[in-house]
Amino acid sequence: MNVAEKANVVVDGVGMDFAVKGGTFTALNDIALTLPRGSFTTLLGPSGCGKSTLLRIVADVIQPTRGTVDLFGMTASEARMNGLFGFVFQDPVLLPWRSALGNIELPLEAQHVPKAERRERAMAVLELVGLDGFEHLLPAKLSGGMARRVAIARALVVEPSILFLDEPFNGLDELRRRQMNVELQRIWSATGTTSLLVTHNVADAVFLSDTVIVMGRNPGHIIERREIDLPRPRSIDNSLSPDYIAHERALTALLSDDYKTRDD
Amino acid sequence: MSILAPRDQRLSLPSWVVTLIVVVIALVVWQIGITVAGTSANVLPGPVQILLGADWLRVAGAAANTIFSTLLGFAVGNFVGLALAVLICASRTFSDIVYPAAVVVRAIPIVALAPFITLAFGRGPGATVVVAALIVFFPTLVNVILGLRSVPAEALELLKVINAPTVFSYARVRIPFAMPSFVSALKISAPNAVLGVMTAEWIIGGTGLGRLVVQSWLSLDITTMWSAVLVSALVASVLFSIVGLIERALLGWAVRT
Amino acid sequence: MRALPRPVLPAIYFVLLFAVWQVAGQALAGPGAVLIPPTTIIETMGTRWYALLLNAGITLAEAGQGFLIGSISAIVLTVVVDRFRVVGEGFFRLALVIYSIPVIAIAAPLTATLGLGTESKIAVAALSAYFPVLVNLTGALRTLDPRIDELGRVLAMGYTRKLVSLRAPAVLPALFSSFKIAGPAAFIGAIIAEWMGAESGLGVMIIQAMFNFNVPLLWTVLVVATALNGLIVFLFDVLGKLAAPWHDSSKAIA
């Protein structure tokens, strides 16, 4: 690992047990993965494979039962304390009493950034996610897609070293989701932030990722790691081409195998 | 009562105008009914008899006392309830202890405790304030704890990810999230506070509306009794409306969604 | 992860609380003491069980009749509010105004009019009970899933058919949750009405204990009243679950 090219995030031997009635349930076992700096990696798997749990372990929201997480030479906890994380949740969880801008400023307030600088940085990311002109709207007035953009802006405003995305476009309609993927790719290219996405959507995984890590269940484990070597920038038009379909087919086959073995 | 007065769907008049019209119609029907039936004013006086016959100076003085006690008790009870709820929630152990007790506390008929409270806190005018404060305190405590615990899990995770200090978490996220359940506690406790104060006044003696209702009844001054009843309804409605205003100020975001 | 399962810690604290209450109650014992140890309360229950049972029965009977009258009229009024919008809105506002009269204030004129018998208690209990039912039920009907209404249209149902077959079952959970408020309200209403003057009932016991400065009896009656109050809530909770067993799963959709 000493030669590790630009290996910045290293997860090694991670496992997670939960106490349940009459014993323990192993949600994750023996997880090892490496995210190169600036890369976009996706954890792809069915519900219940522990992909969200893994994401939260890397983000130090929960502590693993076993194993280590190393982010940029720091422990997950140190990295979090240093404000290196941006996290986009499945639900946008915007504070309903704050405007879009106020929501984006929240992480900066927690870090005691002066008001003028706060405003300036929040406006900058607001522009980056394409919401300039909507900064004073309350969340109730935002559409689903706009709320997700605010959530992404709130994650990016701290200029994170790593961006965690937990099924961020869940619940959007098909076309809107594809558009948000294009947006996310653009934002990722513009910031160069190391990103880790969790999804069960094969098309999203192929479209966005440099690397897709396919996960299976019982207990949660890594089935295969697949490099997506498609040229960037990727577009909605391209995403229907045979190259994309081939990747999607391969990933779908891996997931189907996992379902079959489980149904036995 | 814990639910918002439903909004007009067809009527475009402001809500209070509708209520006013309804009240006026009811008073007119009452007056006509009394006159036609020829009911004695000693049993049930009509609105006109009440307006002309009641001892309004006494009613006004009594109302002022009741309002003062209620507002003071309301403020004290809510402040203590809110503060204690936050302290309890900040400690996992405390909330584990208090949470199951909340179920029991909710079942206590606090209004029925009024005689006991006056006994415990003496018969001074302070007892009315204590009764109102206690009546307000419990629903506020329980609801704010429930509200603080109902903050979405992802919002708490967000606070962790952005490494927010505890005080920041409470001031900017958790307490605001608990405000809707705080306000629904206020809606329950506002009319109950008036009721509690009047009950205490009736037991203690004092000079409030609670005493006046019973006293004028016993001295067969039925018109004054009815005027006190109507004024106490007015006081309760006004307090309820104030809660509505507080709700609008605090929860504009929630009402609009 | 933790050594103790979650219910254990609170249980220990509550046992401790009762122990402290007991010790403090005994330490402060004597004429005029306001704090009474739990054992004295249990003792009083033992010696006065017959009076407690009798009076509780009387108050519960008053509350029960008042609850029935109050909730049935509330259900009728709800249908009127729902069927005839403008007139209904007027009735609804009037109901709101009447409800804002504090129970103790309405209890006096009702006792003056109806006398010291049970009628005045039943009336006060009914007045306390009708409002939660009316508000919850009207609110539930108004915020009903519009698809239920659409289903009724598709099936060409008239107002009554739609109400009976589709809308009423859908608001059943709301009805029972309103009973959980209305039940205790009727009970407390009956107690307060008894304060105004009655021959028997828990309210009479409270007032007599207070004026005689019989603190142990006052505590005991209040404990009994609290337990009954909780029991009423529990009863309607169980009934609600039996009447609408689908509710918990349907909550996820709503």
Give a summary of the structure in a few sentences.
The complex is a heterotrimer of chains A (264), B (257) and C (254). Chain B has 257 residues and is mostly helical.
Please give the alpha-carbon distance between the first and last residues of chain C.
Answer: 35 Å
Question: Number of helical runs of chain C?
Answer: 12
**Helix-strand category of chain C:** mainly alpha
Oligomeric state as shown? heterotrimer
Provide the spatial order of strands within the biggest beta sheet of chain A.
Answer: 6-7-8-3-9-10
Structure overview:
The complex is a heterotrimer of chains A (264), B (257) and C (254). Chain A has 264 residues and is of the alpha/beta class. In chain A, 38% of the residues lie in helices and 26% in strands. Chain A is built from 8 helices and 10 strands. Chain A has helices at residues 51-58, 76-81, 100-110, 115-128, 144-156, 174-191, 202-208, 242-263; strands at 7-20, 23-36, 40-44, 66-71, 74-75, 85-88, 162-166, 194-199, 211-216, 221-227. In chain A, the strands form 2 sheets. A 6-stranded mixed β-sheet of chain A has the order 6-7-8-3-9-10, sandwiched between helices. A 4-stranded antiparallel β-sheet of chain A has the order 2-1-4-5. The longest helix of chain A has 22 residues, at 242-263. Chain A starts with 6 loop residues before the first strand and ends with a helix. The relative contact order of chain A is 0.17. Residues 1-5 of chain A have low confidence and may be disordered. Chain B is mainly α. Chain B has helices spanning 15-37, 47-53, 56-90, 92-107, 110-120, 126-149, 153-161, 166-204, 209-218, 222-256. Chain C has one domain: MetI-like fold. Helix content of chain C is 81%, strand content 0%. Chain C has helices at 8-27, 38-47, 49-83, 85-99, 103-114, 118-142, 146-154, 159-170, 172-195, 202-211, 215-243, 247-251. Chains in contact: A-B, B-C. Chains B and C meet through helix 1, helix 4, helix 5, helix 8 and helix 9 of B and helix 1, helix 4, helix 5, helix 6 and helix 9 of C.
Salient structural properties:
heterotrimer, A: 264 residues, six-stranded mixed sheet, 10 strands, B: 257 residues, mainly alpha, MetI-like fold, 81% helix, elongated, disordered N terminus
Map the helices and strands.
The complex is a heterotrimer of chains A (264), B (257) and C (254).
Chain A: E1 7-20, E2 23-36, E3 40-44, H1 51-58, E4 66-71, E5 74-75, H2 76-81, E6 85-88, H3 100-110, H4 115-128, H5 144-156, E7 162-166, H6 174-191, E8 194-199, H7 202-208, E9 211-216, E10 221-227, H8 242-263
Parallel strand pairs in A: 3-8, 3-9, 6-7, 7-8
Antiparallel strand pairs in A: 1-2, 1-4, 4-5, 9-10
Chain B: H1 15-37, H2 47-53, H3 56-90, H4 92-107, H5 110-120, H6 126-149, H7 153-161, H8 166-204, H9 209-218, H10 222-256
Helix pairs in contact in B: 2-10, 3-6, 3-8, 3-9, 3-10, 4-6, 5-6, 5-8, 6-8, 8-9, 8-10, 9-10
Chain C: H1 8-27, H2 38-47, H3 49-83, H4 85-99, H5 103-114, H6 118-142, H7 146-154, H8 159-170, H9 172-195, H10 202-211, H11 215-243, H12 247-251
Helix pairs in contact in C: 2-11, 3-4, 3-6, 3-9, 3-10, 4-6, 5-6, 6-9, 9-10, 9-11, 10-11
